[in-house]
Task: structure prediction
Amino acid sequence: MLVKLRAIDVSMDALTFTWVLAAIAGNVVVVIVMWTFRVRRRGVRSAQRDGVTWKRAHHLGSELAAGRDINRKAPALTQLLDTTDQPMLVAAALAVAVRQEHAEAHPALFSAVGRSRLATLLRDRIDHADANTRIEALEIVEVLRVHLLLGDAAVLTRSDDKAVVRAACDAVVELEPSIGIGILIGLVGGGDSWVLDSLGRAVDAAARRETSPVPLSRSQWRSAPMLAQRALSESATFSRATVTDALMALVEALEHSTTSRRLAAVTALSASIEHPAAQIALAGALGSDDRMVRFATAANLADSPAGRDILRRTAASDDGSDAARMAAEVLWTTDDPALVEVPAGGLRVVGS
Amino acid sequence: MIRALVVGFGLVCFSFTVLQYSTLLIYAALSGRLLRDNRAGRRPVALVKIATDRTMPGVSVIMPAYNEENVITHTTVSALAQEYPHIEVIVVNDGSKDATLQVLIDHFHMEAYDNNPRQGPIPTERVHTVYRSRVEPRIVVVDKAPSGAKADNSNVGINTASYPWVVVMDADEFMERDTIARCMVEVVAAPDTTAMVGGTLLPANDIVIDGPNILERHTPRNYWVGCQLIEYLTAFLVARPGLSSVRAMPIVSGGFGLFRRDAVVAVGGYRHGHLGEDMDMCLRVQRDLADRGEECRVVQVPESLCWTEFPQTKDVLRRQRIRWHRGLKMIMSDHRSMIGRKRYGPVGTVGVGSLFVFEWLGPILEAIGWLMIVGLCLAGWVDPQAAFAVFLTTQLIGMALTMLSVAIMTRYLQTFTRRSDVLRLFGWAVAMNWGYRQLTLVWRIRSLFPGATGWGEMPRAGFKTNPAAAAPGVATSASAAV
Result:
């Protein structure tokens, strides 16, 4: 049987063709092996070089974030960013150091970053066509609080790519929470659950940093449990909003058809646990038909003395719900001296 | 007439081989593109944001355990050490005959808090007692009536879980610190549509651990483990990322997988008595969501690593593979109606279709093909030199493809960086195609006939915790005789 290869104007018998294929396959095997060892050698060298740069940047970032030796380390950080040939690696290491620092990072770090050329480099990457490159730049803008790029980030909140929009919103929220909240409210109706999560974080950020009220109307915050929580905890913050209306919005959200909204409502009410209305709503949520809501409520109640009080009372009741069992577990594992034994007949509180 | 049939069958085999190799090449290209992409899972800032964000949804790690006294504390510690804000570990003791339960009670200071737990949404065997720790509130141990079935144990864990996401893994597996964070990055990317996320399983037979950390990672020295590793690399670094790229991934491994809890509960969890319970559950979730008109995103994250002890002897491996293939037969029987149906999208046609063609039909065609070639050579119809040329060519192409998976691992994952480890990997890639592959083909054919389906006893070597035990040339309990 003849095999004709028209492209190279060759014909050969089938056996020869098979041997040719075998030879090609054998050569491919050799090429793959050689390429892999070359790539391995290059990878090891660059990992060693990158590792040194990363450690240095991470150390500088950790020290500055903690506020140690600012006078020496801040200029060193600016110089590192201006002279390194791996600025994105250095920026990533700094961002990781900032996030790993549990307390709020010292402002000297952000000032040192602001004095460097990083903003210019990040702007180029934000303008890049590749979505992942843009998102990476936005993440660094967010964590290192590069205020110069607030406008660039705000523009990207109208991108067609949802992942880019989300990263841009997170960056804007971190730089200017009130502007971020306004943008996120406009996205609430779009149906993506991440908007609510981002909104909750934005409200927290605003509460930590700002005292002026967030201008919202009732029709807007009814869709956002976190915003209703803000109204609940600050009472008259929102125009035409009342505590009762805020509570109603959160209780309605407890019965929403989507899990994400129900859990967001639980978290929002728990953040306002000191308010009696929130306590009543949460006590009711312990008996919800949705198991996830019951357990999430119990877990959230465990975080505060008022919440543990509610759980203790629920545990002592006779309804035998699994939320009561969760209450027993919570009382067991906190430093609360109340212990719970579980004999065969049911729950009994001892030692209280 | 016979000659025409033989030639016709030969052409079918040739076409099948070309199709199989080209599909693998396409998967490799897609996988390479996925791994090269600057995705969130490869960005340190994105990972640390996930790891430090207290608003992230919680993850319940479920570990069904049977006779795991040697490893259970190590694996539980590795789960608790995950760099993720909200983790819960649920160990389900399936009536272990050894001291698994007592080891957990002693190590984590556990005490019984519920002797009559209520049945959860998925029916299971009776649960005796739920234990909680006085020092570590994130761990739960559930002691239940023995069922001998991972499906039942996993379902008990799912019933007990408090969080909206669950990881189902084996109790002899060790995770990297960022394994769960890397999976949750994909969830965060598309929280409303992601239902399942898979990771990469690697052999723990030659790693050295210290508490929750992995100190050393080495390629295996055992022949059976080495050949299995190459198979797994082809699956987890080539085939599955390729399928994931085209939204056609039919399975998230039962050895390690992240699942949306409500989607699993909606289909009744894992099916008791099914030999391919992991793939069956994945497909039922995808079918259920498709039937309800909801999007279902199933993703493979190659960088999310989980280390598990691979079978080290031929007998254990044979039992495993026969069981797997019998499970595949059940899968084909239950889910082949997905092929070609528009409602199920690429997972029905490409995912289940490729399972049917390459995993089910492929071994049968291959076995008949080789038998025919040998028979025809003996009958003088085929020139032995030609037959050898065909055999050598297919072997070399197969070797090239398996070596591609080694190249992808070295380039993008960089898990094994020592020259000796990479050399050993290539050695296993060669060895795998000469003998091992043919043996697994025999086992697959064997599975078509009735026989035992149990796992049998799989002796565990446990994890190495003494660095000196991993030195080259030192015989270890893990290097079982071939």
Notes: Chain B has a mean pLDDT of 88. DSSP finds 13 helices and twelve strands in chain B. Residues 2-36 of chain B form the longest helix (35 residues). The domain at 44-351 of chain B is CATH 3.90.550.10 (Spore Coat Polysaccharide Biosynthesis Protein SpsA; Chain A).
